[in-house]
Amino acid sequence: MYRIGSGAGFSGDRIDAAQSVVAAIAAAGQGGAVIFETLGERTLALGQIAKRLDASRGYEPLLEDILAPILSQAVAAGIVIVGNFGAANPPAAARAIQALADRLGLGTLRIAVVGGDDLVGKIDLTRTERWDGDGRLPGLQGDVIAINVYMGASAIAEAIAAGAQIVVTGRVADPALALGPLVAHFGWAWDDLDRMAAGTLVGHLLECGAQVSGGFFADPGVKDVPDTANIGFPIAEVEADGSFVLTKAAGTGGLVDLRTVKEQLLYEIHDPAAYLTPDVTLDLTEVELEELGRDRVRVSGARGHPAPDKLKATVSYYGDWLGEAEISYAGPNALARARLAVTTIKARLERRGLNLAHRADIVGTVSAFDSDAGDLLAESEPPLAGDYRVRFAFGSASQADVNSAVQEVNALYCCGPAGGGGVRQSVRPRVRTLSHLVARDVVAARFHFAGEPE
Amino acid sequence: MNARTVKLHDIAHGRSGDKGNRLNVNIIAYRPEHWPVLLAEVTEARVAALFAHRGATRVTRYELPRLGALNFVIDDALEGGVNSSLALDTHGKCLSYLVLGMDVRVPVEPGDGHEAEPVLQTAR
Fold first, then answer.
1. What is the enclosing helix (H) or strand (E) of B24?
2. Is residue B1 within 8 Å of B107, Cβ to Cβ?
3. Is the pTM of this model over 0.90?
4. pLDDT of A70
5. Strand runs (DSSP E) across A71-177, as ranges?
6. pLDDT for A142
7. Do A271 and B73 make contact, defined as CB atoms within 8 angstroms?
8. Which domains, and CATH codes, for chain B?
9. Domains and CATH numbers, chain A
10. What is the mean pLDDT of residues A55-59?
11. Considering only CB atoms, which chain B residues are within 8 Å of A263?
């Protein structure tokens, strides 16, 4: 049996999450792995921008905060650390980890750096196919910041087999973070598709951290979760046949049951018979779940089919500017005053001839469900009196126009409806992304050990 | 069949996720006896209607009877997706609750306390 835990589900996750996971795996005394998933669809582009400004940056900003509390224990217990926290600059992340190890008195660690995901200069985007999920989005103009392909688990597995204590990657498919150590431990064959599917399923359930152990789940009175302030991150106890038990460390909050596992099983899944990854096409339709006891769910029945011919790459562009500004209206007739603020700003944008997309939400009515056009607000009948916050958003290639629009919201202080207060505003550059499909033969996943030649 | 109307939220839970401008929403029955209700009531057409105002172009429903779960894949429902949308919830993470707010008809079993659904409100 092999234990894998999750230490992070995204960049910005709880930095103390890994401690109970590593402690529990260490206590079991058989080694294992802890994985950190810290890359979203735009995180990597932000890393590229940071790297251009400073060649020593571009990796996960919280890397030292995440690893400092667990590095010594993981190394001592033979727990492999695998993370995509290298982002745009895995070599720099490896140097930062070694510097941390030096400070902790751990000596030189075997830190593997996985590369090959960066395709800038290696493909002609005009000759690649857009991923169909983004098919109706307009083409993007402007400079490409980054092109990163989702790679599979092979380089991670090879690095661990070669003795890596830590594996730092950039863009890899999230489940590969778990499949890599499992292949290295069990020696599963890459053409054993059901095992590949099982390992991919382990990764899929772990990759979002606490989402499978009671995080993003609590619905008070309906789906209650104990001690949400101390949610335990998940640990998978994986058998050689690929079946596994999902659990979490004793003494932590959260819960692992059939409901939490089902929600995460289908999270970000399209066709459940064909979840596409670089390593395998995972078929979830025969998966069986069995609740063995408190916070223990057995998962089996993953089936594998051959991996897709093409790999998905995220193309990130320097895009436009996003401006946001908010103002509150409360008390008698607050909704009418809020609506007047919306129509006032719309008219001001037209009068000034600003070239931008805009949206207004009246928070407290239907903001989260509404469209840019405000259809639901137009049809709904919320109470006239209340406590409403009007939130405007502006998008444009012109920073000046976005600044002007935000300024118009600020001007509501003197020129708008009665009793408006609490304006907050921001303007920031926005990275935009589109997904493309690329041929496998342009991708060369590889690793080297930090301090050794590539 | 005696039936009563409840919110889908009363009999099912679910979570939404995004990839680009494509949204998925899973809907999971708490109890096996409500699986047929999901199949009958939570249709592609009804989900498409919920997202029509956001410009959804296609809804595909996948059925997972072993889990008592449906998975809806909804194209072009995210106002451009996380890196382009002007919406507050750019990921669409709130949107499972848009589906869970729909009304569904559930059969009334003898003894579950709901068979005497009043047709007329009596005077107080």
1. strand B22-29
2. yes
3. yes
4. 98
5. 79-83, 111-115, 129-130, 144-149, 166-168
6. 75
7. yes
8. 2-107 (3.30.70)
9. 2-116+151-308 (no CATH), 318-432 (3.30.70.120)
10. 96
11. 13-15, 26, 28
